[in-house]
Write a structure and sequence with these properties.
heterodimer; A: 392 residues; eight-stranded mixed beta sheet; two-stranded antiparallel ribbon; 13 helices; globular; B: 390 residues; alpha/beta; 9 helices; 22% helix
Chain lengths: 392, 390
């Protein structure tokens, strides 16, 4: 990890002037900073590692005196593991990372912290969902003062939804109706897991927000006219467009557009991120899985990349995350990991959310090639094997 | 252990296949056995029963054909239940109920025979489905059945554990109903669906004392004054009472008061009473699955005795071992060893885990501690495994 104090910079500055001048001509000015670090366990090394990332991002300026909402990733059933491996070591954001982030943000001055997730297939309290996964929610609730949780699949205690307009009009959705918690916060954090995704190629801080949408409106059992406050089922309408959301919420701009999930899901993710901006993106890549986003994808396996990433811009953070996974964030459809989908990063970039161009992103910490964990190589092998099996 | 004699079997020599197996009775169903078969059975000392003539200590119950429900519309596809998991037909809850209603009777389950092809691996599953609740499935095999060795192995396994049916269910949740009249269907469905969620329960009848369980579902509409008083005492002592009647009169009846601090549940109003709570549905209950699921959430999954991962096609039943410890019965309704890697977490402190299954020697398994529970990674098994924790 590089560290350069202000004092060191002042002493070095005169000698560096010619060098900096050359650099300024050679590379465009960074528009975004993303911090990366190695972290090989969820033990004692975790809090210092996250603390270092947050220091690099001057996180206190972002959260001091603020209400912070943290959208975690608990996609899929709490009862489906990858083999015997606990969900937090493969599919879900790890509870220790959630607790550590809550603790550090509180220590940096956050007044109130709300942990959010549209928990799979239900409107149960988020604490109960965590218990079903085998977690102890009190470990998170007690990580800092004033920590709360909410399952954002329904309207919840506010009893009404907040409408978020998509900047730029949206690729597919002009606006989304979300649980009040996404509006009743000053700072919105996406705390994602570093994973590939069967439909969208990768799932990092932006794709994590797919689960921000309430299934009462966007789920399989959503009401036709009004939200169904006893909802079940997944967000199939986002994948294949087989129906529209409840009429109480805005429908698609053009309901006759392409219904291919590889076309729709990246665009809808970009729309969601453009409607409810992410203020802090964090990627848990300490332990994860290769080959897909959950145990329901065939051929997935647990991996230990040993990486943490954080940034103030989600497109840039995901671009660095992709590079750390061995993928090119500038890749487009037909190129790994976007063999059958469009690139969410490009689509978000088109909506003005941020840049995916690594030459315009300042990476704080070790170089990407020093931390890179190869998801891309095994992906090629796995896909070739699957194609051979399909042809056999 | 009764075997239903298929109507297609006319040849008494088939009885030789049964000799040496634990099958010790024949069940003729609606048609009498062919004369030569009946004579041969008598010569072999095999009693013959039918729908009008069963042992005096046996109650026959009509049940499902246990297993994964196959889709009518798509051939061998498996239907999904309300959880999105495969739909499982099971008689376990029915046997528990009948044993509660008639504790001095043995329960035999007579399944309606499916019109489709029956596969050999379905038979051990059906036997296990009844056995884990202390019942006996009337063994029903297709006319071309040949897997006598596997059948015998399964029957011998359960016959070698005669004490299992007498073991008490270990539970923190109770379901109280008369299980009669209009309320029977909903109360029965609550039992069925609660079992599907791997939540063990005690079945309670109105005339019995209410035990100190963590939560109690009252699945009937109107209790007698005596029962209402018992329920009130239970709640005042710290229990959670979940009623199915959305018109439950809290003020004039059980005396509980709404508590503004507890009004966050989307489908229930919560009332404090003494040390406990009463949960009343905001609307009439029409979805038994949602109700059964909500009751567990209201109680809190913190108190779940059993958590299983990758076990959507499995059934379970938790019993207390007489000398301490527990026995977790598991039925794999696919009937086949597969790639499923199932993890079982059982609340409690245990030092030793032993897996027992038909055709295998008992196997000691490593045991991890997970908070106040023990976690065990289970090897593959085809139809039944019993995890003994002590």
């Amino acid at each position: 990890m590089f560290h350069c104090s202000r004092r060191q910079l002042l002493f070095a500055a005169p000698a560096m002037v010619p060098f900096l001048a050359r650099r300024a001509k050679a590379a465009p000015t960074p528009v975004s900073r993303v911090a990366v670090t190695a972290c090989t366990s969820y033990g004692a090394a975790l809090v210092p590692a996250l603390d270092g990332l947050f220091d690099s991002l001057n996180i206190g300026r972002l959260v001091r005196g603020k209400t912070v909402a943290i959208k975690i990733n608990m996609t899929g059933s709490p009862k489906a593991r990858v083999g015997y491996v606990p969900l937090e070591d493969t599919v879900y954001s790890h509870p220790r990372v959630i607790g550590a982030v809550a603790y550090l943000l509180s220590r940096a001055g956050a007044r109130r912290i709300r942990v959010l997730e549209g928990a799979f297939d239900c409107s149960d309290p988020l604490e109960e969902f965590m218990l079903q996964a085998g977690w102890e929610p009190n470990d998170i609730l007690n990580a800092a003062p004033n920590v709360e949780m909410e399952n954002t699949n329904i309207a919840g205690v506010a009893r009404k939804y907040h409408r978020f307009q998509t900047a730029g009009g949206g690729h597919i959705f002009p606006a989304f109706d979300l649980n009040h918690s996404f509006a009743d916060c000053d700072v919105f954090v996406s705390l994602a897991k570093m994973k590939e995704h069967a439909t969208a190629g990768i799932t990092l801080s932006m794709k994590n927000c797919f689960g921000s949408t309430p299934i009462s409106i966007y789920g399989g059992s959503a009401g036709v006219d009004e939200p169904n406050e006893n909802p079940r089922g997944g967000r199939g309408m986002f994948h294949d467009g087989d129906r529209q959301p409840s009429r109480s919420a805005p429908g698609e701009n053009e309901p006759a557009t392409n219904r291919d999930p590889g076309y729709r899901v990246p665009r809808i993710v970009a729309d969601i991120v453009a409607s409810r901006p992410i203020d802090l993106a964090i990627i848990d890549g300490v332990r994860s899985m290769a080959g897909g986003e959950g145990s329901w994808i065939s051929g997935v396996s647990p991996v230990r990349p040993g990486i943490l990433v954080a940034g103030l811009n989600p497109v840039s953070t995901d671009a660095v995350g992709m590079a750390l996974m061995g993928f090119d964030p500038m890749a487009d459809r037909g190129t790994p990991p976007f063999e059958t989908s469009d690139n969410t990063l490009r689509l978000a970039e088109e909506l003005g959310v941020g840049t995916r161009d690594l030459s315009r992103i300042e990476v704080a910490g070790p170089r990407i090639d020093q931390l890179r964990f190869d998801f891309a190589g095994p992906r090629k092998v796995r896909r070739a094997r699957l194609q051979a099996d399909a042809h056999a | 252990m009764p075997l239903r004699w298929p109507a297609e079997w006319r040849d008494p020599s088939i009885l030789d296949s049964i000799r040496g197996t634990p099958v010790n009775a024949l069940y003729a169903g609606s048609e009498p056995l062919p004369g030569p078969v009946a004579e041969r059975a008598q010569a072999l000392g095999l009693p013959v029963f039918d729908q009008d003539r069963v042992p005096v200590d046996v109650k026959i119950v009509d049940g499902e054909w246990p297993g994964l429900r196959l889709s009518r519309s798509s051939g061998d596809a498996v239907d999904a239940g309300p959880t999105g998991a495969p739909w499982i037909d099971s008689n376990t809850w029915r046997i528990q109920l009948e044993r509660t209603l008639a504790p001095n009777k043995r329960v035999w389950v007579r399944s309606k025979i499916p019109t489709r092809v029956i596969l050999a691996h379905e038979i051990p599953v059906a036997i296990a489905d009844a056995a884990i609740a202390g019942g006996q499935w009337i063994i029903t095999v297709p006319a071309d059945f040949k897997s006598w060795a596997k059948l015998s192995e399964t029957l011998r396994f359960f016959a070698a554990n005669p004490g299992w049916p007498a073991m008490k269910t270990k539970a923190v949740l109770g379901v109280l109903s008369s299980f009669t009249g209009h309320e029977q269907a909903m109360a029965s469905e609550v039992l069925n669906l609660t079992a599907r969620m791997h939540q063990p329960y005690q079945i309670l009848l109105p005339g019995e004392p209410v035990p100190a369980l963590r939560a109690l579902i009252y699945a009937d509409l109107k209790p007698t004054p005596e029962l209402r008083s018992k329920l009130e005492t239970y709640v005042r002592g710290g229990g959670l009472l979940v009623v199915i009647d959305n018109t439950w009169a809290v003020d004039e009846g059980i005396g509980a008061k709404p508590d503004a601090g507890l009004q966050t549940h989307p489908r229930f109003t919560l009332h404090k009473l003494g040390l406990g709570r009463v949960a009343i549905p905001r609307k009439a209950v029409v979805d038994a699955f949602q109700f059964a699921s909500d009751a567990q959430t209201l109680m809190s999954h913190r108190w779940d005795l059993v958590t299983l991962w990758n076990a959507a096609a499995y059934g379970s039943h938790l019993t207390a071992l007489p000398r301490g410890g527990v026995l977790l019965h598991l039925v794999n309704y696919t009937g086949e060893s597969g790639a499923n890697q199932v993890t079982a977490r059982v609340r409690g402190e245990y030092q030793r885990a032993v897996l027992r299954q038909p055709g295998h020697a008992p196997e000691s398994l490593p045991l991890q501690t997970a908070g106040r529970a023990a976690e065990v990674y289970l090897p593959e098994f085809a139809s039944y495994a019993g995890l003994e924790l002590s």
